[in-house]
Amino acid sequence: MITVEHLTKRYGSTLAVDDLNFTVEKGEILGFLGPNGAGKTTTMRMLTGYMPPSSGTAKIAGYDVLDDSLEVRRRIGYLPETPPLYREMTVEGFLHFVARIKGVSAGDRAKRVDWAIQRCGLTERRHQLIRKLSKGFRQRVGIAQAIVHDPPVIILDEPTVGLDPKQIIEVRHLIKSLAGDHTIILSTHILPEVSMTCNRVVIIHKGRVVATDTIDQLVNRSDNRTQYELKVAGEVQPLLAALSQWTGVKGVQTQSQGDSHVVTVSTEGNTDIGPELTALVVQSGLRLYEMNRRRATLEDVFLQLTTVEETVDADTDE
Amino acid sequence: MNVRTIWANFVAIYRKELQGYFATSLNYVIAGVYWFVAGVFYIILFNAVQANVAAQDLQGQAGLGAPPVDVPAVILENYLGVLGSLSLFVLPLLSMNLFAQERQQGTLELLATSPITTTMVAIGKLAGVLTFFITLLLPILFYESLTLLQSEPPFSFGLILLGHGALVLLAAAILSLGLFISATTESTLLAAVGTFGLILLLWILQAIADRTGGWLANILRHFSLLQNYTSLIQGSVSSTSIVVFLSYVVLGLFLTVQWVDGLRFQRA
Description:
A: alpha/beta, Rossmann fold, six-stranded mixed beta sheet, 14 strands, B: mainly alpha
């Protein structure tokens, strides 16, 4: 449904988006993940035809965003970073206007507007002026204008920004329920959002794709460390000495405060050393207060992918 | 794109613009001030011309043989001149929001990613603001008719309409240029000031021409808004003047579309 090939955007001498490649299948929800300033918005603007790419192509439903701009625009619903709203219009009036310029036929318009209003939970606000709405409701009107013409492709730039936790959950449900009939790309820098709504993730950093995969695969693909965090009290040296002998232990960190210590043990791979570790703690005569096992999460993957490069860059800068 | 979608797009933008004008309180203030000032000028002018005519009549009776004066025509012509100058101040205020506001509130992004061409957006906006200006003229037209049509022999309503047609033509030219200026900035204030400066320059091109002389003067005179407007309200319906005004309309629309489409390449 969406094909992006070698998409590049250059502002002067800075590369905002650098040789982006990915595809989105029909009915998929693709998460576009990256730290602020990674090039998410620029990419979305190129996909919607708002901005021409410097080089490379992007196709939506087989239409090139540059050459067949009008055909592309007919097929997309787009929520920009700041919802594009006319403050002096009512919610309903605004959605009617959008339906009209998106080419919804006069007969279907009222039905489509009702549908969007209902789906976005705006029924009670439909006659209110947009400038009188709270930020959360404005965001919903923004989503409503992106779906009012029932486009096959929906592009949402940070759809949950400015919403309260309850609204965020509602919006995520809404997005999920739209998938299937619609192909959706959403950008975010909030990790749980991706794991909760998306089938696949494209992680971009400094304008480049650093990973693209399903969430499970991404987590598995990371260096897969398991960490144990122990809170103990007593003489910690014997434990550390014993741990250094173990194979499979990749690193040990200790934070001490008087008699109590926090020991973090990292292991390589999936090796489960929990039972042995507890035995060793007891053997060393330590008092164990707490023990946690942490597995790699999407967050770790994300941090790993977006910070490793930073240090490399920093090195070359020097 | 077939004709029906083009028409539907035009109507969508046109309606939105008109609704916007009537929903903005500033426009009521502008309308109020315009009507008040125009009304005051009308009373002053009306009395002045009548006093003048009375004096001439007196001279006529004294056998000095002054030619008869068509009072309503004199009033209308002078008054349209006043309205023209007054509009120079009002029109930039009407056109300043056209694109600047869209840019500022981010709705240009909505328009630019909708299946609607920039040309249609520009034409719809111009038609909307021009319609608003025409509604501003309606009460004025009303009191003019009320007074001028009382004259003996009766003055033709057609002439009044024709004179205001010239004013609408002038407004269309100015608003079209204002549309373009408004597209070049996100600040409505800058748009208003810039438009005012530009049309003031075009208004007095004739005066500049008088100073320069030579072939340049002839060209400048042709493009002077005042020159063309004056010749139209004096009743010489010359096609040249109409063409000049329409050229300004087309030029404004063309520049607007070029600029707005070009914005896509500047965005950072």
